[in-house]
Amino acid sequence: MGRRAVGCGGCVMSAAGALTAVSLWLSSDRTRIHLGRGFEQQDMDLGVLFTELPLVFLAGAALPVLAHAAVSGLLHDRQDRRDARNARDRRRGRSPRDRSEGDR
Predict the structure, then answer these.
(1) Do the beta carbons of residue 95 and residue 44 sit within 8 Å?
(2) What are all long-range contacts of 41-50, with beta carbons under 8 Å and residues at least 24 apart?
(3) Rounded distance, CA 84 to CA 1, Å?
(4) C-alpha 12: how far from its chain's center?
(5) What is the biggest distance separating any 2 CA atoms in the chain, rounded to whole angstroms?
(6) CA 37 – CA 72 distance, rounded (Å)
(7) What angle do CA 78, 81, 87 make, to 5 degrees?
(8) pLDDT-derived band of residue 71, with 50, 70 and 90 as boundaries?
(9) Which of 50, 75, 90, 93 is found 20 to 30 A from 19 (Cα to Cα)?
(10) How far apart are CA 26 and CA 44, in angstroms?
């Protein structure tokens, strides 16, 4: 897969995460009460739109990015170890296929 496709996929995942987080936040009972769906408009606090909503949006957008970074870091480390093992085997004069079961 090309770098461009991976970048576009990451942007789509971040947008989906942000929209999912905001929709879950809007559907919570606590948010409904603060936005005026309480008893006779009591406890209406529109300040949550300025304090909580941006944080929920950013957290929803950042979570897929952090998950991708963690998974790709683990996979990259695994590939680096494999490459180092193959280079060590080439220096010793044997191909990676010549290793015994104990060397793996």
Answers:
(1) no
(2) none
(3) 24
(4) 12
(5) 82
(6) 43
(7) 140
(8) confident
(9) 75
(10) 14
